[in-house]
TrEMBL record:
It comes from the Bacteria. Residues 5-143 form the Phosphotyrosine protein phosphatase I domain. This is Arsenate reductase. GO terms for biological process: response to arsenic-containing substance. PANTHER family: ARSENATE REDUCTASE. Keywords: Arsenical resistance. It holds the Pfam family LMWPc. SMART domains: LMWPc.
């Protein structure tokens, strides 16, 4: 039996995008993947509307919490196979090292805290964010990882990060 791949999703606050990605990969990845998320400056709590959306779509949210990426830099932390950042910048911070074996990629997506407009517009944008992550993670989980070399994996993950996302942020 092939061991599961550990995947860490990172964004600044670890309150929305990375938690969504963790929940989606938990559901789509089966026994092949173990999903984690963290942030450079984690929020005290996940965004309530993100948790509500994930619950409404049948995701287990019981283990989701905002946490620092420092939890994954200790010697006893799980060894990461993939580290994927989900934001444009990490507030000027540089990601720590997660081991030589980790394949890294960037899938920059706008954070729900930036979504302007009323409740309906924000809900629509949250739906689009979820759909974009779901699509990317679905493609990621279908990659023949064991048969691809490190450079090919990195190239494919980068391609996923460049896939268009139709989120249109309103003005604040």
């Amino acid at each position: 039996m092939t061991p599961a791949y550990n995947v860490l999703f990172i964004c600044t606050r670890n309150s929305a995008r990375s938690l969504m990605a963790e929940a989606i990969l938990d559901k789509l990845g089966g026994d092949r993947f173990r999903a984690y998320s963290a942030g450079s400056d984690p929020a005290p709590h996940p965004m309530p509307e993100v948790i509500e959306k994930l619950q409404a779509l049948g995701h287990d949210v019981s283990g989701l919490r905002c946490k620092s990426w420092n939890e994954f830099t200790h010697d006893d932390a799980p060894r990461m196979d993939f580290v994927i950042t989900l934001c444009d910048s990490l507030s000027g911070q540089r990601c720590p090292e997660f081991g030589d074996q980790a394949v890294t990629a960037s899938w920059p997506l706008p954070g729900p805290a930036q979504f302007a407009g009323g409740t309906t517009e924000r809900a629509l944008l949250l739906n689009e964010l979820y759909a974009g992550l779901h699509r990317r993670i679905g493609i990621f989980t279908s990659l023949p990882i064991a048969s691809l070399d490190r450079m090919s994996l990195r190239h494919r993950l980068d391609d996923l990060g460049e896939a268009p996302v139709s989120l249109q942020l309103g003005s604040r």
